[in-house]
Amino acid sequence: MASVAPDAASLAAARKLAGSWSHAGSSGLALWGLCQGSGSKPYQAVVDLRGPAYKCSCPSRKFPCKHALGLLVEWSEGRVPSADEPADFAAEWLSRREEKTENTVESGDEAPKKSPDPATAQKRADRVASGLVELDLWITDQIRSGLAAMDTSWAGFDAVAARMVDAQAPGIAGTLRALAGIVASTENWPEKVLDELARLHLLVAAHQKLSELPEDLAHSVKAHVGYPVSTESVMESIPVKENWMILGSGITEEKRLFTRTVWMLGRNSNRWAMLLDFSHGSPNFATETPPVGFLLNADVHFYPGAAALRARMGATHGEPEPFTTMPFGSIDAALQQFTDALAADPWLRSWPAVISSVVPSFVDGSWFLVDESGTALRAEGDSDLLWKLLGISGGYPVTVCGTWNALALTPISVFTGGQVIVL
């Protein structure tokens, strides 16, 4: 519950609702119940665990509200009995959710995209190649003139990025726009910008020899440039069937485009998978994933690439169940996994990792994760998030899940006391 609660106060209020419930039940992945509040009419709460998604008749602006969280508390503690059919108020909402999903697929919003015909694909490739030639000339000019003479304003980078959008290379456009932020926020920005320009030059060179590259590496090059990959082709790939542990979930927003990222680790294979979903206007995602802290036996289809990470959920086998133990992960193993992934795909920026038995430490203005041998790994991220991590640990060893970018680890979640807490 802590992973989905909007704040600690909501979770505390939810736990106080024990004894206020009536007509609670569960069927499949749906929970429902009536919670008596201060008024004469009880609040109707429903939870769809596949999202998870929540519905409550209370006027609270928090999402999920304390009643939905309270229902999850009742369920997790075994006080919600099984039922053959949902209550009427729950069935109506669940039915509308099913209809919305079906209508979305029928309208084509989430329908698998078919691969373009060869002529269209070649036309796009030629357009990208032409744009990358211009980009390489621009990079060469910046190096020859010196970074001190470079137009490092947002408008300067955006002008080059816009040309890449026209050339149908949105991945490169995003990298270029990010350079303005690097200049504005980093003291040693020339070193960082030079590193990014070198990375882009390597990508241009790889694209020019695309037909000579191994198939997996060619797919990685296309992905970093921004070539689209059809959902249909991904779902036709051979799936990886595993017991997937859901270790983290987060939603970001940029210009009203909401992106949900879910990190999963195969319990047996120790293989990572990252699910990405997008929604315009509001964080209402058409696809649903199990909640953090649950184990799901499922088929996962990976996008092609030399270091495949992004994936889509396929068929599931059984219902998600909470897990209370984690495989051990050392600092050395995490660094080796990143090294192997980077060797396969040199444009990777980060790779997920699980590090066990580390103590969060704040030393001389910097954050570290220190293991039992005294080995320290630098940590970075939002200050409140890192202090929260320290507070959860209480100065004792915990297991941290995060992403490593060759310089520092950004925590995503922490596993302690048999549960996963999203940071």
UniProtKB/TrEMBL annotation:
Keywords: Metal-binding, Zinc, Zinc-finger. Pfam families: SWIM. GO terms for molecular function: zinc ion binding. Residues 95-125 are annotated as: Disordered. The keyword Zinc applies. Residues 43-76 form the SWIM-type domain. The keyword Iron-sulfur does not apply. This is SWIM-type domain-containing protein.
